[in-house]
Amino acid sequence: xxxxxxxxxLADSAKYDVSCSSSGASRGKSQGLLGTAAAAGICHSWSEDxxxxxxxxxxMTNVCIYDCAYCxxxxxxxxxxxxxxxSEIVDLTLNFYRRNYIEGLxxxxxxxxxxxxxxxxxxxxxxxxxxxxxFNGYVHLKAIPGADPRLIAEAGRYADRMSLNxxxxxxxxxxxxxxxxxxxxxxAPMAQIRNTILETRSDQNRFKSxxxxxxxxxxxxxxxxxxxxxxxxxxxxxxxxxxxxALKRVYFSAYVPVVQNHPVxxxxxxHPMLREHRLYQADWLLRFYGYTAGELLDDLxxxxxxxxxxxxxxxxxxxxQFPVEINKADLMTLLRVPGIGPVSARRILxxxxxxxxxxxxxxxxxxxxxxxxxxxxxSGKRVETLNYETRILRPLLVxxxxxxxxxxxxxxxxxDINPGLWIPPAKEVIVT
Length: 432
Description:
Number of helices: 15
Structural class: alpha/beta
Oligomer: single chain
CATH topology of the largest domain: TIM Barrel
CATH superfamily of the largest domain: Aldolase class I
CATH class of the largest domain: Alpha Beta
């Protein structure tokens, strides 16, 4: 099979893996080395300054020994198969980089022969890129659950970021849809990577010449909607993953039916991308706004409201917290106000040191007044005098948030003559 055909198959097979984003790693120019990795990020995604970042995102192989019900590459699936050798991947990455097609590599793989066999070949790719190709660009490597810890440790010496997919939220779901996989083989290498990162950083604090290990950290991904877990369970799991494994990101992948009439899989799921979007907004609140999973959802409110962002949903359930006095509230209290984000909250703190703020000043500071006006007051004067009753405010907030998600029909390909322009579902949405 020609390499072009292999690349078409393996790039298409990789489109369901969403756990790639800004790298967070910096590699400057070095004499005798090829390429750089900028902290702005490397991927087919959108950076913070609005640039589209490109990388070679492929599977090493889509030949798999497992029969996961939700996966298009499962062993029982009748799809075209292909495998790239380590030499082919190295050559493709270097040649595409020299032609300015890409800025880095995102390499994942199905499990070929065994976890150790697959991981060994992936490590060979990144080792040869760094040592023989002198490649100094960004590399995100998927670790294979069940692989020897020594292979995981070696991979971390060459990769900027590593990730392991947790796949499904519970052990019961994993046993149902992916009985060949064991949750312990996923969490054990996550703990190993976390511990080695912490040890390496400690060494680097003492010795500047200490080698780095996965400097951009690790991430994971879970499928949402293939089984019946609530958003409450998903957010609690997300919170625990951040706390236990110091992850950079938890990614959510809306379940896409790739198997027709499967006895244990749902058919068409209602609004899968909208639910994914709400989970990303809730994840943002966990990471940057000081919320806990238990505050956002509980046993009485186990699902996120698809019509309202999670912050507005929380605010409507806690009328006792409002109105917030703009000229006196601290940072964390300001961040609880719908329409106020981290940037606008800090601008408020800075500006009010010189004079009391009025309602008409807030828009210029970045406050989204169409939401914030219901929850704030300035110098004791309410901006909007409506009561905090859900039946009154909810229709108004829903009306102010028209949400339109455009979903691509396929991953952008190197071989598209005119792929067109599409706006991806937001993975880095700042909730205000």
